[in-house]
């Protein structure tokens, strides 16, 4: 169901990828899925949007992103 998902373009060091995510997924979980899809090693990842790091434990829906929004995948040394 499209009303429960959002399509994001994730910019990575290996090129962009367009993915659908459940709106209620936590940022950290969505970022890990994107990292795995692009072949990055298991680790801690977050998204950056409009120059600011998105809080890992917040759900995507809390950012009021529109379909097609662009986020940047960023590795972090933090443990989530």
Could you outline the blueprint of secondary structure elements for this entry?
Layout: E1 5-11, E2 17-22, H1 27-37, E3 45-49, E4 52-53, E5 69-75
Parallel strand pairs: 1-5
Antiparallel strand pairs: 1-2, 3-4, 3-5
Structure description:
A five-stranded mixed beta sheet has the order 2-1-5-3-4. The chain starts with a strand and ends in a 5-residue tail after the last strand. The protein has one helix spanning 27-37, and strands at residues 5-11, 17-22, 45-49, 52-53, 69-75. With 80 residues, the protein is of the alpha+beta class. The chain has one domain (2-75): Ubiquitin-like (UB roll) (Roll). The protein has one helix and five strands; from the N terminus they run ββαβββ.
Order of strands across the widest beta sheet? 2-1-5-3-4
Element string (H = helix, E = strand): EEHEEE
Instruction: Please give the domain count.
Output: 1
CATH class: Alpha Beta
Query: How far do the termini sit from each other?
Result: 29 Å
Low confidence ranges: none
Arithmetic mean pLDDT: 94
Count every helix, treating DSSP H or I runs of 4 or more residues as helices: 1
Indicate the percent of residues in helices: 10-25%
Record keyword descriptors for this entry.
80 residues, 5 strands, alpha+beta, globular
Brief write-up:
InterPro entries: Ubiquitin-like_dom (IPR000626), Ubiquitin-like_domsf (IPR029071). A hairpin with a 5-residue loop joins β1 and β2. This protein is α+β, with helices and mostly antiparallel strands.
